[in-house]
Amino acid sequence: MLVSFGELIILVVSFLKIELEVELTDKPGELVRCLEPISAQGGNILQVIHHRSLDVGKGVAPVSIHFEVENIDVIEDIKNAIEQQGVHVVKWEQEFVGFKKIVLLIGHVFQKDITDTIIRLLDSGVLVNEVNAKITQKEEVSTVKFSIVGDTEQKIQEAMKLCKEISMEKGLFLIRG
User: Fold this and answer.
1) 3-state secondary structure of 176
2) Rounded to whole angstroms, how far apart are CA atoms 90 and 109?
3) What is the domain count for the chain?
4) For helices 114-123 and 153-169, what crossing angle results, to 10°?
5) C-alpha–C-alpha distance, residues 171 and 5, integer Å
6) Mean of the pLDDT values across residues 10-34?
7) Where are the beta strands (DSSP E) in the chain?
8) Which is more confident, 165 or 6?
9) Do 22 and 90 fall into the same domain?
């Protein structure tokens, strides 16, 4: 007999998006050297645009790097590490994006209509994004991972309360971390 169960595991973070523009010497390894401090501090690179056609002279080209960090405390460390390597930082803009929770649903999620769950969360005023699913067979337990993003902690807490209500309504076991 198959037993329907579900678990909800939550990771809470706030995060910033950074838009960085630097001038790099157009030679092998320069871009990697600039990206290493971001990676070392847990930054997630979203986009890199190498403007080779906009050479500013002496073999130097502007590069735009967009990334996000979950730990606001590492911002200055990243910026200092990049500058200490002799990289000229032309622009550094940061934007507080909001609060983010990673949600992992495990159970017969698709039989319990994950689309309905996502729509109800969206209707509560939060964003649901980065949705990933693992399905083996219709009868088997599936896994769905998604992010809930809100501009205030209050919205996130309300969305998590709604997650709990939905899981109870759909007969899923809910674990909150």
Assistant:
1) coil
2) 47
3) 2
4) 150
5) 7
6) 82
7) 6-25, 44-50, 60-69, 88-107, 127-134, 142-150
8) 165
9) yes
Please, are residues 19 and 93 in contact by the beta-carbon 8 Å criterion?
yes
* Residues 103 and 47 placed together within one structural domain of the fold: no
Tell me the two tokens of residue 110.
């698709």
Name residue 99's amino acid: F
pLDDT (tens digit per residue) in 141-159: 888 888 888 888 889 889 9
- pLDDT tens profile 46-104: 999 987 666 666 778 899 999 988 777 888 999 999 999 889 999 999 887 778 888 87
Domain containing 46 equals: 15-97
Give the closest residue to 130 by CA, choosing from 150, 120, 145: 145
Instruction: Note whether 91 and 109 are same-domain residues.
Output: no
Q: Alpha helices of 56-171 — where are they, by DSSP H? A: 75-84, 114-123, 153-169
Residues 37 and 51 in one domain: yes
pTM of the model: 0.57
> From CA 173, how far away is CA 8, in angstroms rounded?
8
Burial (Cβ within 10 Å: 0-12, 13-18, ≥19) of residue 88: middle
The SS3 assignment for 107 reads: strand
Q: Are residues 90 and 112 in the same domain?
A: no
